[in-house]
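Field: sequence (string)
Field: structure_tokens (string)

Example rows 1 and 2, in order.
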Amino acid sequence: MGLRPRTFLLGLLLLLLGRGTTQARTSPGENTLEEQLWPEWQSLKGFPFSCNSKKSGSDAPSNSVHSLSPSDIKLVAAIGNVETPPDSGTDDLEKQEWTESEGPQACMGVVTVLSDVIRHFNPSVLRPICSPGKGVVPHNGAEDLWIQAKELVRSMKENQQLDFQNDWKLITVFFSNTSQCHLCPSAQQQRHVTSSMDQLTRMLDCLHQEVPKAFVNLVDLSGVLRGSHWHQGTPLSPTAEPCRCSGETSRLSRVATQWAYQETWEQLLASSKYNEQKSFAVVFQPFFYEGALPPPSGERPLQDPTVLALTLWNSMMKPAGQKDEPFSAKERRPVKCPSQENPYLFTYRNSNYWPRLLESRAKFEVRDGMEIRCPDKDPSDTIPTSVHRLKLADIKVIGALGDSLTAGNGAGSKPGNVLDVLTQYRGLSWSAGGDQNLSSVTTLPNILREFNPSLKGFSVGTGKENSPGAFLNQAVAGARAEDLPVQARRLVDLMKNYMDINFQEDWKIITLFIGGNDLCNVCNDPVRYSPQNFVDNIGKALDILHAEVPRAFVNLVKILEIISLRELYQEKNVSCPRLVLRKLCPCVLKFDDNSTELASLIKVNKKYQEGTHQLVESGRYDTREDFTVVVQPFFENVEMPKTPGLPDSSFFAPDCFHFSSKAHARAAQALWNNMLEPVGQKTRRHRFEDKINITCPDQVWPFLSTYKNAVQGHGSQLLCSDRAPSASPPTSVHTLRPADIQVVATLGDSLTAGNGIGSKPNDLSDVTTQYRGLSYSSGGDSCLENVTTLPNILRKFNGNLTGYAVGTGNASDTNAFLNQAVPGTKAKELSSQVQTLIQKMKDDHRVNFHEDWKVITVLIGGSDLCDYCTDSSLYSAANFFDHLRNALDILHREVPRALVNLVDFMSPRVMRRVFLGNPDKCPVQQASILCNCVLTLRESSQELARLEAVTRAYQSSMRELVESGRYDTREDFSVVLQPFFYNIQLPILADGRPDVSFFAPDCLHPNQKFHSQLSRALWVNMLEPLGKKTDTLDLTADIPLPCPAQNEPFLRTPRNSNYTYPMKPSIENWGSDFLCEEWNPSNSVPTSVHELRPADIKVVAALGDSLTTAVGARPSNSSDLPTAWRGLSWSIGGDGDLGTHTTLPNILKKFNPKIFGFSAGTGEETAGLNAAVGGARARDMPAQARDLMERMKNSPEINLQKDWKLITLFIGSNDLCHYCENPEAHSASEYVRHIQQALGIFYEELPRAFINVVEVMELAGLHQGQGGKCVMPLAAQNNCTCLRGSQENSLEMLQELKTVNWDFQSGLSRLSYQYLQREDFAVVVQPFFQNTLVPLNDRGGADLTLFSEDCFHFSERGHAEMAIALWNNMLEPVGQKTTSNNFTYSRTKLKCPSPGRPYICTLRNSRLLQDQAKADPPVLSWAVPVAAGGGLAVGVGTVMAWRALRGRQRENPPISLNAVSL
């Protein structure tokens, strides 16, 4: 080798200076030796250095080496050679060149850099010293180091700038091993380290005895220089005698032995005499390459000693036992700084080394056994010929292929024994192990042996794949996907040649699991480990099995989500050999969290998973009846197991990479359950810490699940013979055949995104998983025979259909494709989804945007209703209408050739019935988080009535939009309302509760069984002509898939259905139809009020205020005071007849045409017995009662003693309006007292009377105007002081008014129980106003047709509705009366007396016991668990997952309905 000029000059300079200890002694202005040798290292002063140089605490130097900070160090020195001469094959000239220059250069380079680092903390640090070895002098390495140590001591003593006794020194000793025995396992390694220590003792003794105040680094460069002909720095033996190690040479072997070697050194030093004093310490600093690989042969490993020096410094900054940063000759890593908590160099004592080591080894593994108690463990009656009818007990042979996770590396190792991870505990392997039995070791074979004790093929004990105990577990530690074909070939040969296996007849189960090593190396060779090569290599192995192995069921276990390993690696509070971890899996662990490399790895991981699915689901391995491959996806989403707050290392072998027996047991249980779960419903998330219950085979369907037998319950058959497209591509949407559809797309919320479709029962957290491939309108998983979805149906007509989603994931994932539904989406966000969808269709090469026909399904509204009560204005029906219109307008404007399915949402009533009807199965404690405004409302409450009204308004908005014809202006576009979701018929169990088996674990989202029915119903709707579409879905019905009609084979639109949208009928009056048949009076005039029939009533009367005088019932023709239309009053008016005016007297006229007392017209003289006075309050009721008594006594038409009288009392609105003026005078107690006084007058003086007391309506909502639509100023604000005041203090005043309102109603509710002594007298409280809310029109606004011009009093329609509600209340038993009013217009809402109940209802004839008057109202059965504070069914993590699923939910939203209440 020729001399290099620069090397020659440097060598010559060294010769001139002479040999010996290297330290510069120069006069000012002269270049020092290190400046001459390493001028480029002086630039370290400009190296980025972010450490705080200020010493914390006292400025005085430390008295102990265990609290030694960098600022205390005065001198940096080193002995030993960083690089030593080439081997004996190198010529003498090259040796001389090395002797003269390379050795001193490398050593001086390291100490110079270290000294510069120290100078940052202590500017007075002295120039460094390097005492290089003799090189070619024939001393052995140990003696050479002793000589150097003596020389170093002499040099330090002579240094006049150094206070030898008191100054702290940092001394580094470089050595290496010419032998490779340090890489031998166990006892050999222990002997070698002890031998090395003995050889170093003389040198260490010299330093220990003669050098006070010293921190000594013992640096072994064997791992760095191994493999290079630039042999190790100062060797401990003069000749390189190779150590004859037995064992493997794999990466795992190298890494484990290196770690054990380092740990052996540290234990030996930590317990030695060199670490007993306060003034002296020796610390082992290991150096191993990244990935456990040496530099290529011939390459100098230490070309830049700066890297070596900084790596050494960083090692000094890490506690003993945690030095896990691998060496990289080409990479400068950031310089570590002393921390405020640990501002010192680490020794064994201040690293707390021994206690931590003992703690990590104190955790002994407890193996997991279990029992399985299945009623049916028998094999098939005859040996099955089809793999799709294979029972567990039919399996006779088991085998496995894979890597070290299947080989069982470290499964039985004791904690802390990293070296034992090399042991392959095949008998404990999750998929192939057969040690002991199931009661002590849980593995797939041990579970199968419970069904067939004669099972063969499982592995036992320990050993490699070629050991006798391995048997058919042919997994190889370190294997990659490219190694699988060789494994498959070996497995087939073993099965063929084993005498106890009937290769042709025995059923076999083979589990294949691979990919961890591929992912761990993908960054080093992306092409070799590409997803395509990964899948192709698995395919090659499966092809061998498929071609040669009869009667086999192959489990292809998905590669796990390996990224979770980072959590264990990064958690410093968990004791793990991080250097081992990083070397075993560098591509997962060495990159930063937000790096592009890590993002790429995650993408490759997912593509590995997706690729294996696609490989198998292609049908490639389902061509024979006796062979199949099934993907088992339980590892698809893996969470790091935790023990309070920290990763639980008990699930891992001592290297924290491989599985412990505990993890093997959990994996075996998960695999077993996956095998029995139907395809499409398999668990895709695995939590190691969850103890899994072993599933027994279904007694009805006891077979292993395959792609073909998964049709059970979720697949469908399509029997259409004509599946052809149009002869030429249609230009009209009205002649569109199913086979013409080339693109499917969807928009919506979590229902369409597929949340929870495939979730296991009770796995609430998995409801956040979006199973898009199973979604009813967009899923494309598997095929129609296995999974019923609209795309899978359409694919039977057009195999080239595109746009459907597969698998799981978010809308942004590539596999979601054109399913752009997002969980938690409200109507206002639908336009954004539309824009995203359009852009995707335009950009994707698979879609011809202008030519392809598209079916787009839209379902929205559920999320809006869930949040309606938080802001009734934001989620009003009017806004819903506008948002939906905007979204459809964009589609109509921008998307050519499209048929849009607009699907109704699930009724809140259905959601409530399922959720609240199963408090033991549904997460009722989380109701406010899952769907607050639907699930937390009380039955019969105003809020619930309002929600149902808004729901109807939403649905009306959808119909109004479609029926407007707005989207029928183009020949190639139409929107069709598909109403199948309008009425859901829930299956009811024998105990009367709804069947939750159709729902995900949250009891809200449909599961796959439900989605399958949705898909069928949608398809049926699409083929049904408008006007004849099914609007009911029976979840238990058998819904066959229909075929397009031969004469009209089109997807139906309004035009090809010859359908005209209906016109709303005009309403001429507000009368009612009388349909009652029982309308005769009693045979004789009754003497008891409890036997009073409607026809027995002779007299009607009323007390109250302007709502009873009917002010404003009709529009006024003048600006004078509003007219009192008494003849139209709900409770006392008698104008016209029931056919034109619905009032209580007009109803009673049907029973008794001669009834007396009703009002007529508008004049006082025709008021009859209507004693109501405008502006009256409760305090006026006694006076009105006396006035009425006088009228009746003085009327010649009334027989006071014999005629039955019906009196209606309704008062309280004005009391509420003026409550704030004098709360005491208008308190609930005063209100009730005045009414009692009036009733007392009747009770004392009036015979034969039935008194209706109508509860007061709620006024609080009337504080807001009606969008400027009222002609007159609001009476509620002009004449209602409290409502006017509420404009200034709205929230507080409204809440107080609601409370008082409730108190008024509560006070009245007990009056029915206070007048029971007389047989001919009864008071009955009629509660229809208790929870009545102002109804909404079709657009979701308040329906003003119920109000007069002042928006406060009732119109004629409003009076009619009140009359109907009062009449129906009178016929309902006490305790069962309706507490709200349905304002939907109908002429047939009047109830009739029945033969079984012909009387007006009183307390007695309602058979309600008196003591119930004192009883508290019954508590709703579902309210108890909802209100309970403890016993949460799910943890905080699930709650947070649900908050994410719901999306943008306000924190603690106030329940404010902002409703206009009557």
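Row 2 begins here:
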Amino acid sequence: MAAERGARRLLSTSSFWLCCLLLLGRRASGAAATRSGSPPQSPESSIRTFTPFYFLVEPVDTLSVRGSSVILNCSAYSEPSPKIEWKKDGTFLNLVSDDRRQLLPDGSLFISSVVHSKHNKPDEGYYQCVATVDSLGTIVSRTAKLTIAGLPRFSSQPEPSSVYAGNSAILNCEVNADLVPFVRWEQNRQPLLLDDRVIKLPSGTLVISNATEGDEGLYRCIVEGGGPPKYSDEAELKVLPDPEVVPNLVFLKQPSSLVRVIGQSAVLPCVASGLPNPTIRWMKNEEALDVESSERLVLLAGGSLEISDVTEDDAGTYFCIADNGNETIEAQAELTVQVQPEFLKQPTNIYAHESMDIIFECEVTGKPTPTVKWVKNGDMVIPSDYFKIVKEHNLQVLGLVKSDEGFYQCIAENDVGNAQAGAQLIILEHDVAIPTLPPTSLTSATTDHLAPATTGPLPSAPRDVVASLVSTRFIKLTWRTPASDPHGDNLTYSVFYTKEGIARERVENTSRPGEMQVTIQNLMPATVYIFRVMAQNKHGSGESSAPLRVETQPEVQLPGPAPNIRAYATSPTSITVTWETPLSGNGEIQNYKLYYMEKGTDKEQDVDVSSHSHTISGLKKYTEYSFRVVAYNKHGPGVSTQDVAIRTFSDVPSAAPQNLSLEVRNSKSIVIHWQPPPPATQNGQITGYKIRYRKASRKSDVTETLVTGTQLSQLIEGLDRGTEYNFRVAALTINGTGPATDWLSAETFESDLDETRVPEVPSSLHVRPLVTSIVVSWTPPENQNIVVRGYAIGYGIGSPHAQTIKVDYKQRYYTIENLDPSSHYVITLKAFNNVGEGIPLYESAVTRPHTDTSEVDLFVINAPYTPVPDPTPMMPPVGVQASILSHDTIRITWADNSLPKHQKITDSRYYTVRWKTNIPANTKYKNANATTLSYLVTGLKPNTLYEFSVMVTKGRRSSTWSMTAHGTTFELVPTSPPKDVTVVSKEGKPRTIIVNWQPPSEANGKITGYIIYYSTDVNAEIHDWVIEPVVGNRLTHQIQELTLDTPYYFKIQARNSKGMGPMSEAVQFRTPKADSSDKMANDQASGSAGKGSRLPDLGSEYKPPMSGSNSPHGSPTSSLDSNMLLVIIVSVGVITIVVVVIIAIFCTRRTTSHQKKKRAACKSVNGSHKYKGNSKDVKPPDLWIHHERLELKPIDKSPDPNPIMTDTPIPRNSQDITPVDNSMDSNIHQRRNSYRGHESEDSMSTLAGRRGMRPKMMMPFDTQPPQQSVRNTPSTDTMPASSSQTCCTDHQDPEGATSSSYLASSQEEDSGQSLPTAHVRPSHPLKSFAVPAVPPPGPPTYDPALPSTPLLSQQALNHHIHSVKTASIGTLGRSRPPMPVVVPSAPEVQETTRMLEDSESSYEPDELTKEMAHLEGLMKDLNAITTA
């Protein structure tokens, strides 16, 4: 298929260029005909096109048996049709006289009856299809191997065996590999059916796992290979009961190394037996294989591993581990995956002229690496001076001649198979321009021939062609311009040359116009060449110059390379090199020069040698060197040999380990740490370390401990309490022990102290300043029960953080030197242990001026534990960089300015790397030592910012910490599920639930969304659960239309940019039971929402329709209920008006000047201008009697990009009050585009399918005193919501009004505003006024986003029910689950009267007039409701 596709692309490309050539040819010939007066000639006579010629089907490897028939398919495409022939093992078959083999019409080879015997195998071999088109060329197919299965021969047969019940058994039957597919088994002379428990391995072996009594019997294997079946010996299998003595765990069948081709299946057998019955697990390259979750890995009966559709990544070492609880055994095998040859780049068709150089490109891949050979017209291309293989696979043809035309094929083959790809070469006449742009397959020396020629005068022959420089390998030619063009500025030249007596001519072009010299390279010494030069102008090539005969000079007879050079180490410091006399010495060899160089350096040394061997001494131990030899004769140095590399022998280390330190763990153990010796002194591979320790009081009693491998620390236990010990360490190689470190002392604790916390503050700190130093003394912390491992002294001018020095825990004095005179220093002292540093103690001191020469007391200066620091401090490392490698690994690199330019460490300095993260803020630094200029920090947290700094220590000197480098580890999939998953029912909507949760503790990155799974069956497969995606970092979600009185199970999964995290534990929730009030509430709330329509959320003022509209279930509402409801609404309205009038009169009389000012300020804030205008703009008072005030305060001035819920300012003006008429819906729709509030999105879903996202309007809501009980009320579907506003606060709240002016629409979302916080607190019942919205006529067709209940309906039905409402409260951008807010029902009239009496608010007469105007508007609305 690949060849067919390539040929089709070739055909289409050729057709395209043919069209282009025809068009260009017509234009050129037409123009020429016009100038000459003759008719234009057809271009077909001069330009030939590439002919599509390729194989449609190629033969493939085939396995057959004796006597059967075989078809090897082959079909080729060409116009005219090609002639098909066949080759077997490279020789053409004569199919005319063959009665068993015949050629089918399509070109396939048919073998009627395969012949195969021990001494006669005429049909087995390699077949190749050859297609030929006369006058065009020949192509060959890939070779196909025909294998004939031999006679059945058993290499192993089943043997009698026994197996314990429940264990595994194997029965061997191994035949030659060709016959394995024809092996079958019988039990008791009956065919054995294979299943998951009884399998046949690819080798033919039978495996029976979990043996039962039914497996007993006689077994035999049968081979049916085309002839009569051949039977193996019969073997009896017995099934035994449990033994008295438990048998050991053994392998019955171990895996063996396997070679498979990509795409095949591989079976690694592994069967074990033992009691208890063992379990088999597999590992690849020391990583456990998860067979259960992989689609390509299958665990067969007994424990064998089958890998289907093998890929290159499957190659490696596999370990079979058998474990039965008592024993564990393992076996291993290597799986090698091979890949058939594939073409990365195929040859392309080429146009060329004679004498040009071309390259056919061919790039292949495969495993093992394929070899490439080239075929021209079916014959092998033999490399020569003019046919060369370049860049391993490409074919270069130099100096083209006409006979080079034809089809060239690149054939790639390896142990797995072979493949071929071809291209056509057409050589044009010199007067025919090449029709394409220069392809990459043309060499740079011939590209000048590609410019199309036009009609005009051609240049004459170049003059005075001479060889100005003749060497052994090159000739430089020069000439003068042709006589026809004496200036020659626009002429280019081609130099044609060939060996004398050779017809094949090559060409070399000048590099630029006007250039009249060229150098011909890669010539042979002492060889005669014939040269001629031609000039070209824009019209074409001109006349050729007369041939010039030049002979290259003979090459100087220098020696060739010395053969058989060998090098071998004789000691850790010497290497002997031997060689032989060069084969082409070209005279007497005078001497040799031996060059050698240490690997990794660029300094080569040499020594003169007169013999054929030499020993180089004084070399470095365990160091690799390279050697080469050059022979000299009387003419000079000859050709150098290839380099040979050898390493000197290893030796014992010549230096002790570095940075030895002791850490007292407790009263009986000490940890010793060290670093390896410097690399140049290791003298071999360090195989371990020898630790010697002793009591300081008994120096003759020494104990030794060996540490193998590269371990750099050791815990020494079993020591005595309160005893001082000396320690030293020496490094080991295979040659012995190197020098040891100096003795280092440490004293165990008297008692085991506490090291679970940092030490307390030192009990005292004293400083005594001198001129250039300060003597510091201190006493240890008062709490002696906490481990103190040392003290950290920080000091600096004005700040104690400039320099830090650490001293031993026994030390009580220290002298800080190299200070500036007359300077104010701040000094800090902290005790530390392995947990961290304790609380610092501060002190300050001013060094004395230069004139003060007094000394400190001698006992302080000569304190036994006061070290004398080196006068020159160390420079801190520079250029610290953090390179992030993975989610938990960062590489730290730095430079040390105190090292030489090559940054090579030759002394005993070491570096300390520290790192920490600021989350949490009190995280302590972690430290590690390094002896190189980089360190790999592992074990970090994903997606976490770390800071790193480095310091250098040399002896007693240490630098300050370097400048910090920062790096953030890569993200990782969440490793913990979302937490605190809760499910609550939505009030008034028993079919709707709200799922709340918190982000996972280990998010390991930015959470980009969640997936909610829910199902009614907790044991169902996870792919059978319903999925609800949640985009962004929202922490709440609504799921709608659930089944009533049904238990549901919910799981949540978080995701980030790296993938999905684990699922949370299933949370159960049972939906509520439904009653009649539920149905009524749901009917009123949902309406015809199922049809996809939705009206604006009318909030708490919404009244159900008064007409007897049908519910969604078809049950009509009785007219009696509607009339009763109407009477109740009118009655309550009248009572409300009377009460408001009484309150207004009462409050007017109690107005104070302070309240006037307060009210004036409130008007200025909330916009009192809304009361201005005609009576149409007057705002009526609110009908709500017992409301409490709700404040909405923005929690953050900056917009929150991911708000959970947002507030919705509701317009409050008289335009929101629309009389009930047919234009009400249109008015509402006209106002929807003027809405500029904020809204949040709440995803709604059903089990049947996911609904679209719909905006939800958050209304201000009421609350009640905390002592009141809270009960879920499923009797109604709506809840009261009022628009409250608080004046004279520190911000301006959005004014509330009826929600009827808002039509929910996703087009009106505006989530870029600040997130509000709801503060609920009691207020006066008459602080808020609102007008009940008038519903449109007809049944309701909306589904409110949040629950709401008409208050008037509650009063009419005498339902004093407390409803629970949820609200999401934002906190500094972090979202929390909704919190329940309790909304009270309307109070009784008596309670209202008492509240009115306690009211402190009053109104002025002018305000009363305005309020009366409001009441008039309200009465008109009530009349409209009554008439409706």
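free_text_note (row 2): The radius of gyration is 49 Å.
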